[in-house]
Hints:
The strands form three sheets. A four-stranded mixed sheet has the order 1-2-6-5. Strands 3-4 form a two-stranded antiparallel sheet. Strands 7-8 form a two-stranded antiparallel sheet. The chain has two domains: 5-153, Rossmann fold, CATH 3.40.50; 162-211, no CATH class. The longest helix has 13 residues, at 161-173. It has eight helices and eight strands. Strand 1, helix 1 (31-40) and strand 2 form a beta-alpha-beta unit. It is an alpha+beta fold and 212 residues long. The radius of gyration is 24 Å and the shape is elongated.
Amino acid sequence: MQTDLAAFDTTPDEPFDAVxxxxxxxxxxxxxAAMAAYVKALRPGGRFVFSVHHPAFxxxxxTWREFGHYQLDRYFDEYPIHGLHATDYHRSLSAYxxxxxxxxxxxxxxxxxxxxxxxxxxxxxxxxxxxVQLPNFLIVARCRTRCGGNLARRPCRQDHRAKANSRVKSxxxxxxxxHRGRRHSVRCRRGSPADRHPVRCRWASxxxxxxx
Length: 212
C-alpha cells in the first residue's frame, strides 16, 4: 500500500498490534500528524517502534573526519539537513518523546546503539571510530496505553479517576477492619503507573462517627 504517511488512517475495527517505522520519521515534514496517525492505528497495548538518526549526533561522521572530534552548535531548533538523495529534518529528542507522551503512549525502552570496537578497527573506513565512541542512531519502543490515542494530555488521570475510586473502595472495605481508619494508596487499574488514589476505610469512618 502506498499512501501519505501524515494522512494515513485505519478503520477502528482493524487496529494493528505493532507499528515499526525504521528511519522514516526524520524525513517527514509533517511529523506530528504522522505520529498521531501511527498511534491511532494501534490497538490499546499495541507497540510502536521507530528509529532515527540520533538528534545529538546526526552529522557525526563528517565532522569527525574534518575535525578529529564531534562538533555541534545547533540543537533545539528544527531545521532541514540536505543529503545526496533526500532531505531529513533535525528535531530534538524531547520533541519526539513529548509528542508521543501527549498522544497517550508510554516509553518502554530507549536504545542508543554504537559500533562494536573490533568491527571499527577492521573496517578501514576513515572516521569510523566515531561510531564506536558516540551513538549515531536512536531506537525507541513505546506502548499505547489503554486510554491513549486521542489528543488529550494524560487522559487516564482524568477519565477514570471516579470509576477507579468507586471500584477500589468496595474491594478495600471488605478486608480493612484491622487498619483502624488508615488511608490506603490504591493503584488505578486503568490509569498510568503514577495514578494512586487514597481511600479511607468506610468501616473505620462509620465507627468514628458513631463515637461522636
